[in-house]
Amino acid sequence: MSEHTFPQLTSAKLKGSIGQTFFANFVHQLLNFSYRPVPQESDFGIDGYIDIIIGENVTGRTLAVQIKCGDSYYAPNTEGDIQYNGDNKHLNFYLNTTTPIILVVLNSSCTKGCWVQFKKEIIMPSTNGWHIEMPSRNVLSKDIIETWTSIAGPAIDHTDAIRNSWKLNDSLDAAGVQFFQIEKDEILDLSFKSIEELIERSSRSRQSLIKNQGKVELFIDGFNEDPREIYEIPEIRNWYEKSLEFGIPWLYFLSTKLDAMDLLHCLMAMCDVTVKPNFDGNKHITFDRPEQIGSWLTRNLQNLLQFTARHNLPSETSQEIYENTMKFIRTNTGYSK
Predict the structure, then answer these.
(1) How far apart are CA 209 and CA 200, in angstroms?
(2) By the number of CB atoms within 10 A of the CB, which of 93, 159, 295, 329 ranks highest?
(3) Are residues 287 and 172 in the same domain?
(4) Which residues in the chain show pLDDT less than 70?
């Protein structure tokens, strides 16, 4: 042989290629699914992906697959089951993968194959890693179509949901005021999921973002039996406090119309206030520590500036919103910075 060397095709690489080729044909021809192999340089424990196809519809549901080919892997025990041995380096990778994983073992001639779904509940420790028992009944055949489809999960037709979402978006843009309800559970759980969804819908385009500025009026539900005002209830006060830490841009979305009280409730919920009845039956509110108003404004301004910068809105927009906010606060509290 020449002193110049040649690239090597090892028996292990050849078996791997044979296994991949056999499995791809099996998926395409017997299951009528689609198989997408992972390039070798991107193989970190997954050899490929099976796309579930129903009829001619590619459903979007997928299975990840790891294939081992060789008689040393395909070695049934006395009960006919096969022990699949895995490396610890793949364990966290598999457990953090959101796609269901199928483990496959083929004999060297690719005439027999078994499979099992990877699940943390059935992992067992081994000397050099972990293993899973593959039941002898889990053979590769056309009969697994329904089982693998079930493992991948149902394909949902989202047509009606999409149409309803579009209608809701159009309604938000067209409305003069967005009355938005916050449920009691969200308050108690310190959740801002529904507020985030509203912000995402309102910010889906630059035009929508501009249309929806200052249009939101909140309605907090579930505390109707509580005689205290919204801003006096500790759970609601805590929720508003956490909302600023979370970065909710209240100044951008809450209305500053004089008859819209949500911005004032947000302020009062985060300040020490004294509420006394007036002679006319209304309530007189005193801010015990006026410096808290300044702190509230500063924190909200930071969230406003971060939000407008993220959406590439001009600085004039933030300035106008802040001026409207200051006018609203001065009118309702007498505060002057």
Answers:
(1) 9
(2) 329
(3) yes
(4) 1-4, 6-16, 41-44, 258, 278-283, 335-337
Q: What percent of the chain has pLDDT over 70?
A: 91
Distance, CA of 131 to CA of 126 (rounded, Å): 6
**What is the rounded CA–CA span in Å between residue 55 and residue 58?**
8
Residue owning tokens 């991948």: 152
Q: How many domains does the chain contain in total?
A: 2
| 123 vs 101: CA distance, rounded Å | 13
* Sequence letter at residue 192: F
Give the amino acid at 212. N
Question: For residues 57 and 110, is the Cβ–Cβ distance under 8 A?
Answer: no
* 141 and 269, same domain (yes or no): no
How far is the C-alpha of 255 from the C-alpha of 262, rounded, in Å?
7
Asked if residue 182 and residue 83 are part of one domain, the reply reads no
> What pTM was computed for the model?
0.69
